[in-house]
Amino acid sequence: MKNLKIITTGGTIDKLYFDDLSDYQIGQPIIGELLQTYHVGFDFEVVPLMKKDSIHMNDEDRALIKQVIKKSDEAHVLITHGTDTMVDTARYLSGIDGKTIVLTGALTPARFNATDAIFNIGCAVAAVQAQPQGVWVVMNGQIWDPHRVVKNRAANRFEAH
After folding, report:
1. Considering 9, 12, 80, 85, which one is annotated as catalytic?
2. Which ranges constitute the DSSP H helices of 85-141?
3. Does the active-site annotation cover 12?
4. Is 83 annotated as a binding residue?
5. For residue 24, how far is the Cα from the chain centroid?
6. pTM of the model
7. Where in the chain are the domains?
8. What is the CATH number of domain 3-160?
9. Residue 105 binned pLDDT confidence (cut-offs 50, 70, 90)
10. To bridge 90 with a disulfide, which of 6, 39, 142, 146 should be the other Cys (CB 3.0-4.6 Å)?
11. What H or E segment, with its residue span, contains residue 79?
């Protein structure tokens, strides 16, 4: 992989919390800063496409993501996305030829000390390089076909469907 297109859409991974009542906003994407800190050996471009909690995403948003991917020269695309509708977006993006697309996110914000975000990003970077063309969901240390995974809200993890 020479170049990686990173599309950020918001979600918990970029959330900033302000008080005990869970008042939050979605901040600036953190993925570019993390990858620079870790001195990755590839070029990347971060495209902050939207700042939405994924429960508010709709097919119009998904169409915009699809359009950006199709117009991109990069064959490898990583999308940071809220976990609630990540699978829906991954399924929507199925069928884009010539691209390996990986969606990942976090169950706790990247700015928290005990976050899964950094682990998920690392797994997603490895997956986007190793997986064949198609769309993949990377969460909880696993690579999922979006047609065979669901988010188990009670257990707070992704699992086979």
Report:
1. 12
2. 86-93, 117-130
3. yes
4. yes
5. 19
6. 0.94
7. 3-160
8. 3.40.50.1170
9. very high
10. 146
11. strand 76-80
